[in-house]
Amino acid sequence: MSAAVRTFDLAESSRRKLNQALHDAADGESFEVVNPRGAHAVACGITADIDVVVRGSVGYYGAGMHQRGRVLIEGNASTGLAENIMSGEVRISGNATMSAGATGCGGLLVVGGNAGARCGISMKGVDIVVGGNVGHMSAFMAQAGNLVVCGDAAADLGDSIYEAQIFVRGEVESLGADCVRKEMRPEHVETVAGLLAAAGEAAHGADPGDFRRYGSARRLYNFTIDDVDAAQAAVRAEGGDRR
Amino acid sequence: MCGIVGLFCKTPTHRHELGRLTEVMLGEMGDRGPDSAGFAVYDADTPDRIRITVLAEGLSVDWGPVAADLEAALAAEVTVRAVHDHAVFSTDGDGRTARQWLIDNVAGATVLAYGSQIELYKAVGYPDQVAERYDLASRTGTHALAHTRMATESAITTAGSHPFATGADTCLVHNGSLSNHNRLRRFLEAHGESFQTENDSEVAAGYLSWRIRSGDTISEALEGALGDLDGFYTFAIGVADGFAILRDPIACKPAVVAETDDWVAMSSEYRAIARLPGALDAEVWEPEPARIYTWSLAA
């Protein structure tokens, strides 16, 4: 890693210049971003193995389309934090609002505070660790990867989930259609332990043994029209037509 | 999209710069909707009188004779001052009667608001231009709401711009769209509310006015709204002595709140709040779906 940290002050420099510099960076470089003041698309599209620290809160799509490098946001984030992350790490000390980690294909997203509605919607392989709570319809249509929630999950968790795994330590307000509680076997405890260790302080020392596992009942996703009655019955049984 | 902002001064510290701070917040939200903009400011400048803000876009109205006629209709003293294409009447007569009289008797005019504390301005155009034209920056007061619009459910007109206020000192800005507003408008008209546009958000304002006129608190009125309004919404609501926020149960439309000892600010996006004094030390959080938040000057 190079010794010099390049600093971008978004009160003076444009976000476009910042993102271009991040795209042009060589592996091992380090960057600091100050005065983000809720700007959209801060530190988006990184593909190099670099370190970026953002001192303050970001707007929409912070660290979106992320690959390889590590982004640490010291603040909160608006909609779409680390959207479509492919690899690498995105960490945020505060809260993230809607759709954190949406469609993420790989890598690690760590939210120190709470994540809002639809956290991990359509996730496709990303690992997400949330130190606090997640909002309603989190892991909606989640296909692969792990969502670890150290706090509580709001209504309709894992609605129409495929093969992603959800681990929740606190209360689950309700499960979405076709999402069920599953046995927590030793390999699952190991998975959670590894992700909590990767999350570091954000996990607040949570014990992997305290988590419950949720996943797909697999009653919806091999759908054929001949099964429509059974599928509707399954949705009703899971309370999925409540709203 | 639309952008909404609200600023509620809990203490007198920032009341002298309420308008300037609201203008900064509104300007930050400009790229969420450039079609039209508007703002409502609450102040205690003339607590014993009712002010009625009227829009006469594209009309050439001699307001003096209108004030004289209104004076006769109310049997109460009326003064008026013009602010570009808006006029602000002031009277010690009945506000609701004055509102209806102006709707019925000034052809082409729209009554934007009435109450002892509210003034409301709106126009087609970029939010910074609208704020400048009606001198938002010089306004003082306790709380303000503002809106910048991307028109979806009705045309780009000044009358279709936010905020909407149909009852005394009750005002609303809305990000979203309602799907049952036509039926609800007919219901409310049958219960004594009068509407001046085809806009869905005006119906939401009328709904709150009706509930409050029927004796509800703002919290009770919003509790009713959760059951009776169908659609997407993040609302910021002003009443004479308070400020409220409500999001629909799905909560697709964004909202962020920040609070310090001196103020509560609400916006579609954090970057509007980031410009406020003390924002870095504020408690920042996202309002939960279907939960009513209120702040009161009386508290």
Based on the model shown, name its key terms.
heterodimer, A: 243 residues, alpha/beta, Pectate Lyase C-like, eleven-stranded mixed sheet, 3 helices, B: 299 residues, alpha+beta, Glutamine Phosphoribosylpyrophosphate, subunit 1, domain 1, Alpha-Beta Plaits, seven-stranded antiparallel sheet, five-stranded antiparallel sheet, 16 strands, globular
Helix-strand blueprint:
The complex is a heterodimer of chains A (243) and B (299).
Chain A: E1 5-9, H1 15-24, E2 30-34, E3 51-55, E4 70-74, E5 89-92, E6 108-111, E7 124-130, E8 144-149, E9 165-168, E10 179-182, H2 186-199, E11 212-216, H3 228-237
Parallel strand pairs in A: 1-2, 2-3, 3-4, 4-5, 5-6, 6-7, 7-8, 8-9
Antiparallel strand pairs in A: 9-11, 10-11
Chain B: E1 3-9, H1 18-28, E2 36-42, E3 50-55, H2 63-74, E4 78-83, E5 86-91, H3 95-105, E6 110-115, E7 118-124, H4 127-133, E8 143-149, E9 164-167, E10 170-178, H5 181-190, H6 200-213, H7 218-228, E11 231-239, E12 242-247, E13 256-259, E14 263-267, H8 270-273, E15 283-285, E16 293-296
Antiparallel strand pairs in B: 1-8, 1-14, 2-7, 2-8, 3-5, 3-6, 4-5, 9-10, 10-11, 11-12, 12-16, 13-14, 13-15
Helix pairs in contact in B: 5-6, 6-7
